[in-house]
Amino acid sequence: MLVASVGNVLVWAVWIGAAFACLASGAAVVSFSNPFYSALALIGNLGSLAVLYLLLSAEFVAAAQVLVYAGAVMVMFLFVIAYIGPRIESPWMGGPGWQAIGAVLAAGALLVEIIVVIGLKASGRLSHSERIGTAFGSPAQVGRLFLNDHLLAFEITSIVLLVAAIGGVILGAHSRSAADEVPPL
Amino acid sequence: MNGPGVAWYLAVAGFLFGTGSLGVLLRRNPLIVLLSLEIMLNGANLALIGFSRNLGDGGGQIFALAVMAVAASEVVVGLGLIVALNRKRVTLDVDRLNTLRG
Which residue among A35, A61, A174 places its CB closest to the CB of B84? Predict the structure, then answer.
């Protein structure tokens, strides 16, 4: 009994730390004016999200998050930011003031909408959670689900990645030939 | 289930989505718009995984992995566009990028 309550307090403590780190780094990504700092804050955001995934017993997704997002995708981001260099600084925001007010109102409306929909549709069923075995979220179970139940989604995902890779190559090749024509400033 | 219930995770996911949408709507640097999009996708992923744990169904985790793959493709195309704009010496400002012609 005592051990169980100590474990509960520990999980709560880890959850509070990860959730606050997650929300704070999310706000930092939006508010930094230099995209380099924003990208670094997003790495923190992804790391704390991986902790939340671990608390939800999604071990494989947490590992994939760290490897794919915080590893590959963010390195690509940082390379592009370094490649573009000092031209990257643009005004924090701008345009007419009504645009900013409208943006804040629209984002707030989205948040309220999410809360209302989830509260109306699922509030009764959120209080109790299903019992799960130790295999839940393990690589073996994820692999079995991917290759048995969701094989079509798996294959479509690979086609999407292939199309994106071709698109990236075409965009890069096009911009290279354009750069030969335009003299550098 | 030890620790906070799934409602707490959903609250974090909702606030992440709201933060990301605020960044997409407010900021004008296309790189930060892409980063804010990642925050929105991660909020959706957190909700998927929370519901997956709550219902004891692994399908939500599969969906989250598919969302990750789509996000990676989106980043590839978005960064390719930004590099192409940079080669064309166009100002990196989403309010100025209102024509598709080079």
Answer: A174
Q: How many Å apart are CA A38 and CA A5, to the nearest integer?
A: 38
CB contact under 8 A, A126 and B54: yes
- Burial (CB < 10 A; 0-12, 13-18, 19+), residue A137, is buried
Question: Do B61 and A29 lie within an 8 Å CB cutoff?
Answer: no
Report the number of distinct structural domains present in chain B.
Answer: 1
Q: Which residue range(s) make up the domain with B69?
A: 30-89
Alpha-carbon distance of B29 to B94, in angstroms, equals 6
Quote the DSSP letter at residue B5. -
- Among candidates B46, B62, B72 on the partner chain, residue whose Cβ is nearest the Cβ of A146: B62
Q: Is residue B72 part of a domain?
A: yes
- pLDDT tens digits for A49-64? 999 999 998 899 999 9
Whether residue B24 lies inside any domain: the answer is: no
pLDDT in tens, A59-95: 999 999 999 888 888 998 999 988 887 665 666 666 6
**Which residues 8-37 in chain B show a CB within 8 A of chain A?**
8-12, 14-23, 25-29, 31-32, 34-36
Cross-chain residue pair B12–A65, CB shorter than 8 Å: no
B50 exposed, middle or buried (CB, 10 Å; 0-12, 13-18, 19+)?
Answer: buried
Tell whether B7 is covered by a domain.
no
pLDDT tens, position by position, B22-33: 999 888 888 899
Does B3 map to a domain? no
Tell me the three state secondary structure of residue B52. helix
Cβ-Cβ contacts under 8 Å, A6 against chain B: none
Going by C-beta distance under 8 Å and a sequence separation of 6 or more, which residues neighbour residue A140? Answer: none
